[in-house]
Amino acid sequence: MVILASTLFVILLVIAIIVIDKKHDEDLQIHIQAAEQPLIEQIEKMSFQMRSHSHDFHNHVEVLQGLLEDDKYEEAKLYMESIHTAVGKIQSRTFPFQQPIVNALLQAKTTHAAQQGIDILVTSNEAILFPQMMSYDMVRLLGNLIDNAIEELEDVQTNPKTIEIIYTKKLNIHILSVINNGPPLSDDQAENMFTLGYSTKEHHQGTGLASVKNIVEHYLGQITVFNKEEKVTFQIAIPE
């Protein structure tokens, strides 16, 4: 009888361990998916931007083909020169960081911004952006901040439209500022911009700035917004 009870106890214990282990694996998978989602969104945005560039290239080729078929060689030459100048300006852009993943992100965002008539300027007195931060988090943070700045300038009549990205280190504090010369934030925006789900744009999930705030807090940093009439600045300060 004692042996039967012991055997039954062992069987129940094994079943309980299997159930708990399975539940742990399910919870872990959910957490992994939740953590990966913001990065996936950034990759999807970059993929969309690359498809957009391909579509633009196709349009340019069609215009040139039409001009050549109509024997408008001088117009075709001028059009090609304007394309060459625009592409050369973007491709010649260099960035101050020694991190390939950061430079790739900046290149993609700069090209996308240029299509919207927005110029991105990057300055830094440091070669490594946030050395204490995982590349995974850095892509999410920087990508979302730039996307937010681009969205604020897309429908604005300001000329020129500029986004300044300034990175510096003061004592043991790493400071990143992303500045756009769009309209000042409304009181509602200033109060709710970091709230998950909040967005002033249609078809937006409102996860970008909330994600940025979570990343900054994870690295024990602070994010501050300076709201002036001529510029809006998002400044991130993270200790070394």
UniProtKB/TrEMBL annotation:
Keywords: ATP-binding, Kinase, Nucleotide-binding, Phosphoprotein, Transferase, Two-component regulatory system
Every Histidine kinase domain range: 52-240
The UniProt record lists the keyword Ribonucleoprotein: no
Superkingdom in the source lineage: Bacteria
Xref: Gene3D superfamilies: 1.10.287.130, Histidine kinase-like ATPase, C-terminal domain (3.30.565.10)
Signal peptide bounds: none
Pfam families: HATPase_c_5, SPOB_a
Keyword Nucleotidyltransferase tagged: no
Record-given protein name: GHKL domain-containing protein
Lineage: Bacteria, Bacillati, Bacillota, Bacilli, Bacillales
